[in-house]
Design goal:
Order of helices and strands: HHEEEEEEEEHHEE
CATH superfamily: Immunoglobulins
Radius of gyration: 28 Å
Strand content: 25-35%
Largest sheet: 5 strands, antiparallel
Number of domains: 1
CATH topology: Immunoglobulin-like
CATH architecture: Sandwich
Low-confidence stretches: 13-22
Oligomer: single chain
CATH class: Mainly Beta
Strand order of the largest sheet: 3-2-7-8-9
Distance between the termini: 101 Å
């Protein structure tokens, strides 16, 4: 009986010194970023507006899930390619299920200090971002519709005007 009690006390003491999410999970996550068409410039900024990555698609980068003690990180991913509209996509971090393992295993330090400090209490769910970019409305042929006043038309161009009914 004494051995069983001692073993249980030692197990509880040992388990309270570690953190579940930090051991079983991680705090940096790979995110694959792709676009159609490929070759777009991609810029990733964090919640503070700091640029954490700039490159071209396709690429795979490592992103942190925490941004401070008990603070989850969030990102803005911006795609830019000449002839296409700029596309911005948010990327949010969520609570990591392994964080709740601290309750089951008695990891008080893990729950209140280690996992929140390392960012392991959060995870990135969306491991792949694939965006289709939209072509801009301008065709680039120079024959775009422009509306202006008749007084703004040069004298030599009057003969090229077409009356609309």
């Amino acid at each position: 009986m004494k051995k069983t009690f001692r073993s249980l006390v030692l197990l509880c003491a040992f388990s309270s010194l570690y953190s579940c999410a930090s051991i079983v999970s991680k705090s940096n996550w790979p995110v694959s970023i792709r676009s159609t068409p490929a070759g777009a410039t991609v810029t990733v900024t964090n919640r503070n507006g700091t640029e954490v990555y700039k490159g071209t698609t396709p690429s795979t980068i490592m992103l942190k899930s925490g941004s401070g003690f008990f603070k989850k990180e969030s990102y803005q991913i911006s795609f830019e390619l000449e002839g296409y509209a700029v596309r911005k996509v948010p990327l949010e971090c969520r609570i990591n299920g392994w964080y709740w393992g601290n309750l089951l295993l008695g990891g008080i330090l893990g729950m209140l200090i280690i996992d929140p400090a390392t960012g392991a209490m959060y995870k990135i769910d969306d491991m792949g971002i694939w965006e289709t970019l939209d072509a801009t409305a301008t065709s680039g042929t120079g024959r775009d519709l422009k509306i202006c006043s008749i007084s703004d038309i040069p004298a030599g161009m009057e003969k090229h005007l077409v009356k609309l009914n």
